[in-house]
Design goal:
Blueprint (H helix, E strand, L loop, with lengths): L4 H30 L11 H22 L4 H4 L1 H14 L6 E4 L2 E6 L4 E2 L1 H19 L7 H21 L3 H18 L3 H20 L2 H11 L10 H13 L24 H9 L1 H23 L4 H25 L17 H19 L5 H18 L1
Antiparallel strand pairs: 1-2, 2-3
Amino acid sequence: MARNSIYILILTVAALAGLGLVMLFSTGAYANEIRGITEGSSQLYFFLKRQSLWMGIGLVICVICSMIDYHVWSKLCWPIMGLTIVLLVLCFVPGIAKPENGSNRWLNLRFMSFQPSELAKFSAILFLAWWFTRYELQSRKFFKGFVFPCLIVGVLCALIVIEVDLGATALVGGATLLVMFIAGAPPLFLGAVVCVGVGAVIYAAMHIDERSARLMAFMDLEKYKLEAGLQQWNGLVALGSGGLEGLGLGNGRQKMLYLPYAHTDFIFPMIGEELGLRATLFVVAAYLVILLCGVLIAMHARDRFGMLLGFGLIILIMLQAMVNIGVTTALLPNKGMPLPFISYGGTNLVLCLAFVGILISIHRQGVLDRQGKTRLLTTMAARIVHRV
């Protein structure tokens, strides 16, 4: 299956992206009214056209990334890290920053809007893959295997949390800890960071009015269903209304100004309402297939850098999918996070397609012969046993 994993990955991503365009075709017309775009004109499918444009750009970048030797990213680690920090700082510069919903997450580049925290996710993973490849023998040491990587990634997390984007901060932090664990960092210290990080996020959320209201709504959704819990409550109504078969494409009711951001963060409940339980189960199964293919590609990478980079990229995609589905089904507190390949949003879509291109590059140079596979799996098993 390892040889064909990349083809399965591409087909699955294409299916999710196609489903995203279909659902955007269904929900985008009502989202236009929210944004104040005149209905009945060529702007009726504004979001669909925009998403199609971003998908085209993303596909071009995906092809380019698949043709580039993934080792090139190792040489670009620090320039990309520096660029990311500069862009995150620019989110606080008047005239360039684009404040929205009480946060400073966006940059207004005149011809487009850009969210630097999306690039920060890639920068963190790229840095960790480079660091733990260069200092492989010191990966279990306290300073080089734990303190230094945490400090560097901590700079990114600090800038993101100041933007008041706790979800992206938690995502970068979670992906960082998982990659560090795979790389061989001391599990005891990682566990301590998890406890401190969860406590810090909860503390920050409780001291920000909007976030604390979301936590209260999560604890008692029915009580706050007309206030902070409106989105999640209507999302559950949408999922319940669809049943097994769904109401039919275009026949969803919650998108008619009942469910805010039905075309972005809460597009998953709209899939359930219009296409039914089978479609939502297909989406969940598709992400599990992506996870399996990504793990196989990473495990068969030719070197340590490719393995860590591959694992990191697939972790980023899966964590976003898990959080989005968890939020829209009220299993997690409400946090705006797009559903990869499906939700409307150019920055996230382009970055996720770029991740797929890098995975293709890793697969192209992967160790797929029996002898190399056996050697790789034996080495990994030995490291796991040693750590246990």
